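Data deposition worksheet. Section B asks for the primary sequence of the deposited chain exactly as it was used as input, without tags or linkers unless they were present during the calculation. Section C holds the resulting structure in token form. Section D is free text for depositor observations; keep each observation to a single sentence. Incomplete worksheets are returned to the depositor.
Section A, Depositor: J.P.
Section B:
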Amino acid sequence: MPKAVRVHAHGGPEVLTFEDVEIGAPGAGEALVRHTAIGVNYLDTYFRTGLYPAPNGLPLTAGNEAAGVVDAVGPGVDWLKPGDRVAYASPIGAYCEARVMPVATLVKLPDDVSDEQAAGMMLKGMTAEYLLRRTFAVKPGDTILYHAAAGGVGLLVGQWAKHLGATVIGTASNSDKIALAKAHGYDHVIDYSSKDFVAEVKDITGGKMCDVVYDSVGKDTFPASLDCIRPRGLFVSFGQSSGPIPPFNLAILSQKGSLFATRPTLFAYVASRADLEASANALFDVVAKGIVSVEVNQRYALKDAAQAHADLEGRKTTGTSILLP
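Section C:
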């Protein structure tokens, strides 16, 4: 019987349990996928703690992204066959050895993208894609600020944004993470643990500030992030690793320079099959060409998912972490 990591009650990493699960045969429009690698993301901790409600309640199998091999397909599936390599970034339930999936959420993997790369980049890489190409279409001459530059999404954003011609500013918490970010496209990296990042951004930009700020940190960087944005620039809040941004009066956006603000999610940007394939193909293209490298810096056995969460929340990780069934 296959194993899965499940959550029966919300809480810390210790609530992740490794147990047997039953999976049936794929039905119409479905495929049975045997996982070879599973991505670990901060998003997973939000579902574990209950910050984000589980779509189908508890018990919950955690995880949103993985790569694997198709073992069987259900009736009516004509574009996938057993043996095909696939990856996905939804729906939730990836922390398992195998699962039955709706084929509409799967994409085929090209030969030049490995399973570990795919497992570690589908959610993070397509997040980087929509942030840089659709939420704010970064172009040559733009200046961007990205918080948590040494994280999984951050390292991809740094490389991709530099390729798009932007001046890329990041923040990080220590010298090792600063060096890592600088090696992945960032022109400037600010140690936010010891420096005022608003003053640093003002100095770097000569007072012009940034066209866009991408913020997955939340409470600890707000509202200071707004002071890093030029008039009519964009604030993009897409995560809250330090806690949620407290409610605020929209008038602050006018006071800071007629700013725009958005709270996007990947799932809204890949809701249609066409958008999913376009985002995945754009990601595969930059990875295959060597424009963006995906570095798996932490590997854990699937049964050790609790340790992976503890390390992630303790800010002990850099880049990408994966679970291996």
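Section D:
Residues 3-121+272-324 form a domain with the Quinone Oxidoreductase; Chain A, domain 1 fold (CATH 3.90.180.10).
The CA atoms of residues 14 and 306 lie 6 Å apart.
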